[in-house]
Every structure is written in structure tokens, then in C-alpha cells.
Write a structure and sequence with these properties.
Blueprint: H1 3-18, H2 20-30, H3 37-41, H4 47-52, H5 55-58, H6 63-85, H7 89-94, H8 101-114, H9 121-128, H10 130-140, H11 147-151, H12 157-162, H13 173-195, H14 199-204, H15 211-226
Length: 228
């Protein structure tokens, strides 16, 4: 498969699995879903799962790891959907929050897919992992990152690239700059709370449905689009 086609497949898979949390959140809130539990728990129902069954998919260097991670991700997503559709929203939400198995699997799957994309993989992984750096700061009250650095999107290697000759010609350049800047501003607010003993407020600002959660997903989507 040509590199451009491979990147497109990977980028589409990143966006799709990045959005599963929103589909599940909607199911929790409404008690309804366009998918059945069996659909979600079947990794071959997913476009990525079917692609992994092809000759091109099986030729990937990390094929076995990706296959296993993808299957576990869908199995856990199915458990959450089951809870959502059987009137157990509190348990479903708990299984999706920061630090949950689903949260970890989601990040690991996106990281694994991103590292296969040479164009934007590093930027996706870097921003996908911010949640873990912030979670560590909340848990310990310490961080190797200072608030001012977290807030400055130009200190980030991707931020620097955005202002390069290659970055400024992107078709959605201004929108991407705004989303990236907002991501770092919100991350800095959470870090400030974590370092000043306001851990409960910091955690609340990172939970599913929070502004940070939404802006983080939006940024990853846009990075994946560039990687196509």
C-alpha cells in the first residue's frame, strides 16, 4: 500500500476511535444507541478491524500488538454500552473516567496508531499523553513542567512547526492554531490547580465531557486530518 493511502487509513482509524467516548457518553445520557453491544464488542465490525484482516494490515510491523489492543478496546467499550443500555449510567460513567481501563486502552490505541503515521504521529502522541502528565501532577502535587511552560503553545515542538513555512500553508491553519492554543491554556489551568493543592477541581476539569476532554479530542482529530 502506498504511504499516502496508509496514512489515510491510520488517520481515519485515529479519528474513529477517538470519537468512541462521545458515542458511549451519548448512550449513557439517553439510554439508547445506534449500535448493539454485540456490534461494539466485535472488533471486525469496525473498519480498522476489517483492515487489520487484510494483507496490508497483517504486514504492519506492530500487527500482533495492535490486533490485541484493538480487540480489548472493543470488548471494554461493549461492557460500557451494556451498562448504558440497561439503566446503569453511574457504573458506565465510572468505567470511562480518567484512569479507567477504557481511558487507558483508548489512549494506548491512539498512541499505537499515531506512531505508525510519520507525518503527525509524534504530535498526536505528545498531546494525547498530556492527560497522564496532568494526572500525575494531580496525584503528587508536583510536575517537571511549570505552568508558564504548559500555557505557552510555542514551546511545544508542534507549536513551533505550526509557525514554520510548512505549517502556515495548511488549509485549516488558523483554526488549528486556535485549538492548539486553547488546549495549552486549559492544560495550564489544570496544572496550576494541581500544584496549588486544588486536586478535586483539577480532576473535575479533566473528566469526560469537560472542556479539556473536548478540546483534547478536537486537537487529536485535527492532527490526524493533517496526517492523511
Amino acid at each position: 500500500m502506498k504511504e499516502s493511502n496508509m496514512n489515510k487509513k491510520i488517520s481515519e482509524a485515529i479519528v474513529m476511535h477517538n470519537h468512541w467516548k462521545f458515542d458511549l457518553k451519548n448512550a449513557i445520557e439517553t439510554g439508547q444507541s445506534a449500535f448493539t453491544v454485540n456490534d461494539i464488542q466485535n472488533p471486525h465490525f469496525c473498519v480498522l478491524g476489517r483492515w487489520l484482516d487484510t494483507v496490508e494490515g497483517k504486514s504492519l510491523s506492530d500487527y500482533s500488538q495492535l490486533l490485541e489492543l484493538h480487540e480489548i478496546f472493543h470488548h471494554e467499550a461493549g461492557k460500557i454500552l451494556h451498562l448504558a443500555l440497561t439503566g446503569q449510567p453511574s457504573q458506565a460513567i465510572a468505567k470511562m473516567q480518567l484512569g479507567s481501563l477504557f481511558s487507558q486502552l483508548s489512549s494506548q490505541l491512539i498512541d499505537k496508531l499515531a506512531t505508525m503515521n510519520p507525518k503527525m504521529g509524534e504530535a498526536i502522541v505528545m498531546h494525547n499523553r498530556w492527560k497522564f502528565d496532568l494526572k500525575e501532577a494531580i496525584a503528587t502535587g508536583q510536575s517537571h513542567i511549570i505552568v508558564e511552560d504548559a500555557q505557552n503553545h510555542l514551546l511545544c515542538s508542534f507549536g513551533k512547526w505550526l509557525y514554520s513555512a510548512e505549517g502556515i500553508i495548511l488549509p485549516n491553519y488558523l483554526e488549528l492554531v486556535e485549538v492548539h492554543s486553547e488546549f495549552h491554556k486549559e492544560a495550564a489551568k489544570i496544572l496550576s490547580l494541581a500544584l496549588t493543592g486544588e486536586s478535586s477541581e483539577a480532576i473535575a476539569r479533566m473528566q469526560l465531557g469537560s472542556y479539556f476532554s473536548r478540546i483534547s479530542s478536537n486537537l487529536i482529530d485535527k492532527l490526524a486530518e493533517i496526517g492523511q
